[in-house]
């Protein structure tokens, strides 16, 4: 059971103790990638005690935390044992691959999960989150069908029309996803979605394809105000493009007419009101003409939000850390035009070495973040270039140029026998 009589949920805080020797809040990161590393740094800047957890050693956040543990977080017993041993004040899921039913049980026993255990469970299940968004939050989303076999898939495609998007119920980073443009492709798409999600599952989601004009992430913060009331602050829209299914480039702010902006804010607030708790959410939306469609939501800082390292005084990581520690925030804050461009691995390899830095850093508006991942593979995110500019176009050009200089000069040592880690 939690120590010192804590109740579930993050309490409003007006005072913080010292780490290691005092009663500073203890933050346990479940997942220790680059997103976790930034959360860890920001939490430590506030004097928190940070424990980093992941399934492989030397993960990015482990390199900056007070303590680190290598644990299979998908194993409920291992997860529980670690929580009971460390007794953290807050459990902060950084990835989806966690035994979320165990998080729900831990929360019921009084441990605090960010933003709430139910929200982490709902958002990793496309059917649950889509139903919550459309039936409880009453936001607009693409039409969809859930199917349990190939025959139902064919029928759903008849109903929805082509193109249609096939997705695994539980997956991320585009795994198991296919855009079907021709009825002949239904069988392969169904098989892909049912076999290549996080688990094999005959149940598959099929969505109407939205030929959107813009794809944006609305970073939405649920946090205390200085009076101890939980309120919502929605950040400026983050535009992004994905040449494939993975995050590649993002920028902030993405400009919209006032009515579209209001609709984006209302959509984001409606969905996060249903999810509850405190912390940052990344609400993914499509905009087509004047219409906003909800797509999905991360109950944590979002990869496209790496741009806020340059565009906001308080990045999404700083805001997440502040909110989950129960500290107040007053927003929104002005945004400076900025862009972020990923630095990707080229092939499997060990101990990446980054070159091209004198060219990449030739402009004062550019910053680079190298994540310190011990291992690379093709398309693994190893770093990000963040740039400010007078305009979004200029910031995007700077970030892309810097990212590409570094990618071109990346060298790797021979791969180790250890199993490759997933993004
Ligand atoms: N219904 C849709 N219509 C058009 N594009 C879509 C649709 N669903 C997803 N996409 C595209 O595919 C990307 C990945 O889909 P998403 O549902 O966000 O899955 P993931 O969990 O892998 O991020 C989106 O960012 C968007 O570009
Ligand atoms: Mg997505």
Architecture overview:
It is built from 12 helices and 20 strands. With 423 residues, the protein is an alpha+beta fold. The chain folds into 3 domains: 26-113, Rossmann fold, CATH 3.40.50; 143-208, Dna Ligase, domain 1 (2-Layer Sandwich), CATH 3.30.1490; 214-413, D-amino Acid Aminotransferase, Chain A, domain 1 (2-Layer Sandwich). The strands form 4 sheets. Strands 9, 10, 11, 12, 13, 14, 15, 17 and 19 form a 9-stranded antiparallel beta sheet that branches. Helix 1 links the parallel strand 1 (26-30) and strand 2. The longest helix is centred in the middle third of the chain and has 18 residues, at 258-275. The radius of gyration is 21 Å and the shape is globular. The two termini are 33 Å apart. The model is unreliable at 1-7 (pLDDT under 50). Residues 284, 296 line the site of magnesium ion.
Tell me the CATH topology of the largest domain.
D-amino Acid Aminotransferase, Chain A, domain 1
Content of β-strand? 25-35%
Poorly predicted runs of 5 or more residues: 1-7
**Which small-molecule ligands are present, each listed once?**
adenosine-5'-diphosphate, magnesium ion
- Using the coordinates above, name the CATH class of the largest domain: Alpha Beta
N-to-C span: 33 Å
CATH architecture designation of the largest domain: 2-Layer Sandwich
Structural class: alpha+beta
Mean of residue pLDDT values:
95
CATH H-level homologous superfamily name of the largest domain: ATP-grasp fold, B domain
Radius of gyration: 21 Å
Number of strands: 20
Tally of helical runs: 12
Number of domains: 3
């Amino acid at each position: 059971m939690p120590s010192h009589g804590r109740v579930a949920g993050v309490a409003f805080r007006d005072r913080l103790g010292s780490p290691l020797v005092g009663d500073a809040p203890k933050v346990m990161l479940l997942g220790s990638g680059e997103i976790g590393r930034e959360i860890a740094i920001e939490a430590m800047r506030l004097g928190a005690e940070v424990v980093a957890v992941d399934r492989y050693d030397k993960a990015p956040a482990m390199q900056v935390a007070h303590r680190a543990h290598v644990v299979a977080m998908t194993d409920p017993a291992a997860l529980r044992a670690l929580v009971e041993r460390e007794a953290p004040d807050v459990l902060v899921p950084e990835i989806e691959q966690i035994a979320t039913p165990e998080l729900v049980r831990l929360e019921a026993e009084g441990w605090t999960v960010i933003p709430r255990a139910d929200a982490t469970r709902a958002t990793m299940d496309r059917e649950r989150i889509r139903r919550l968004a459309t039936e409880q939050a009453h936001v607009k989303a693409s039409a969809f069908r859930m199917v349990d076999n190939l025959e139902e898939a064919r029928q759903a495609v008849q109903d929805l029309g082509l193109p249609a998007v096939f997705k695994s119920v539980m997956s991320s980073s585009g795994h198991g996803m296919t855009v079907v443009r021709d009825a002949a492709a239904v069988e392969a798409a169904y098989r892909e979605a049912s076999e290549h999600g996080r688990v094999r599952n005959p149940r598959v989601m099929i969505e109407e394809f939205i030929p959107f004009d813009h794809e944006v992430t609305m970073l939405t913060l649920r946090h205390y105000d200085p009076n101890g009331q939980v309120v919502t602050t929605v950040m400026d829209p983050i535009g992004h493009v994905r040449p494939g299914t993975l995050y590649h480039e993002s920028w902030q702010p993405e400009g919209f007419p006032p009515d579209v902006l209001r609709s984006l804010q209302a959509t984001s607030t409606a969905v996060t009101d249903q999810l509850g708790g405190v912390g940052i959410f990344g609400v993914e939306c499509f905009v087509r003409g004047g219409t906003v469609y909800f797509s999905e939501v991360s109950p944590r800082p979002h990869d496209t939000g790496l741009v806020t390292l340059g565009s906001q005084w308080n990045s999404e990581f700083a805001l997440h850390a502040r909110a989950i520690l129960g500290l107040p925030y007053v927003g929104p804050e002005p945004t400076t035009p900025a862009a972020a461009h990923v630095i990707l691995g080229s092939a499997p390899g060990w101990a990446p070495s980054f070159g091209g830095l004198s060219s990449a850093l030739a402009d004062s508006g550019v910053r680079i973040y190298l994540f310190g991942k011990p291992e690379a593979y093709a398309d693994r995110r190893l770093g990000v270039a963040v740039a400010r500019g007078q305009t979004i176009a200029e910031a995007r050009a700077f970030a892309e140029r810097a990212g590409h200089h570094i990618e071109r000069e990346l060298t790797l040592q021979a791969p180790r026998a250890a199993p490759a880690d997933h993004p």
